Amino acid sequence: MNFESTRRRLTEKQADTVDRLTRAAVEVLREEGFAGLTVRSVAGIAGVAPATAYTYFSSKEHLVAEVFWRRLAGSPQPADDGLDRTGRVVAVLRHIALLVADEPELAGAVTNALLGRDPDVEHLRARIGLEIRDRLATALGEGHDPDVLEALELLYAGGLVRAGMGYGSYAQFADRLETSAELILE
């Protein structure tokens, strides 16, 4: 999948550079955590000049938000497998919650990044929010109650913040999302 940059359209060569930078960011996060991540260190691992990296990413928060956006956008909608509405919604929430669950440093970095005020992060946060909203709306089905959709969005966002603050693992967060979603959808 060729992702469009949040800052400009990319040629094939530029898209390759951005791919290398996002993969390198995950490597640095695994080794150094969010505090040790810099655009400069990521550029070094990706084999590009720091100035080149900054043409694509305005900050480390922007870079991490892009990593999450790519994971989300590149992941398929969970199969419905004949599930009822609650089952479909739970599958969507669990899928999104577990996108970074196996990588605690990345998961914490995503929470930090998405809470930032960088305009490029704000743009990505909006794209991520719309993608999650679309997936939840599809799971709820036609004619769903907009207030229920908003409650589910708030549930996900609040859970993400709690997990990012260390009040449990992302796997536990996925379990709590399931229980809470079932309560909302009763």
Automatic annotation (TrEMBL):
<dbReference type="GO" id="GO:0000976">
    <property type="term" value="F:transcription cis-regulatory region binding"/>
</dbReference>
<feature type="domain" description="HTH tetR-type">
    <location>
        <begin position="15"/>
        <end position="75"/>
    </location>
</feature>
<dbReference type="InterPro" id="IPR050109">
    <property type="entry name" value="HTH-type_TetR-like_transc_reg"/>
</dbReference>
<dbReference type="InterPro" id="IPR001647">
    <property type="entry name" value="HTH_TetR"/>
</dbReference>
<dbReference type="GO" id="GO:0003700">
    <property type="term" value="F:DNA-binding transcription factor activity"/>
</dbReference>
<keyword id="KW-0238">DNA-binding</keyword>
<feature type="DNA-binding region" description="H-T-H motif">
    <location>
        <begin position="38"/>
        <end position="57"/>
    </location>
</feature>
<protein>
    <submittedName>
        <fullName>Transcriptional regulator, TetR family</fullName>
    </submittedName>
</protein>
<keyword id="KW-0805">Transcription regulation</keyword>
<keyword id="KW-0804">Transcription</keyword>
<dbReference type="Pfam" id="PF00440">
    <property type="entry name" value="TetR_N"/>
</dbReference>
<dbReference type="InterPro" id="IPR023772">
    <property type="entry name" value="DNA-bd_HTH_TetR-type_CS"/>
</dbReference>
<dbReference type="InterPro" id="IPR009057">
    <property type="entry name" value="Homeodomain-like_sf"/>
</dbReference>
